[in-house]
Design brief:
The protein is of the alpha+beta class and 127 residues long. The protein is built from five helices and five strands. Strands 1, 2, 3, 4 and 5 form a five-stranded antiparallel sheet that branches. It binds zinc ion.
């Protein structure tokens, strides 16, 4: 589960695609996933809870990322199924409204630079 998040950060789109459950994989095209991951700089992942039953697992997590000049956050309760490995099947999403990052604000990527001067998250977003 965490591995999918780090795959987003490193633009390992094939991994994300492969860990979709086969029933949902077709709806999540590699190109669309790739465009999303490349337009974002991920700031944090917080896993709030993990539940595991026989062949079903739930992960409740919260993600924040910078997209253009917005700080976006969402939390999701993801459902995974176990079939020789954990596969993401679906999730209940709660979007928070994106917050505009002021040019003179401290950049939320953690660089300690003003947003207008910060290039660190841009490097990662375009990698
Ligand atoms: Zn930054």
């Amino acid at each position: 589960m965490r591995s999918r998040y780090s795959a987003y950060c490193h633009h390992d789109i094939n991994y994300i695609h492969q860990t979709y459950h086969v029933s949902t994989r077709a709806d999540n095209a590699v190109t669309a996933l790739s465009q999303f991951a490349k337009s974002c700089h991920f700031v944090s992942l917080n896993v709030n809870s993990v539940e595991e039953h026989a062949d079903e697992g739930y992960v409740h997590f919260c993600v924040s990322y910078i997209q253009h000049n917005l700080l976006c956050q969402f939390s999701e309760r993801s459902r995974f199924v176990y079939q020789n490995g954990w596969y993401y099947i679906d999730g209940v999403l709660q979007d928070a409204s994106p917050v505009k990052i002021g040019r003179n604000d401290l950049c939320p990527c953690g660089s300690n630079k003003k947003f207008k001067l910060c290039t660190e998250h841009k490097l990662s977003a375009n990698a």
